[in-house]
Amino acid sequence: MKCHLSVIVCVYNEENNIAPLVGQLEAALEGFDYEIVYVDDGSRDGTLSELKKIANPRLRIVEFRRNYGQSAALAAGIEYAQGEWIVTMDGD
Question: What's this model's pTM, rounded to 2 decimal places?
Answer without folding.
Answer: 0.92
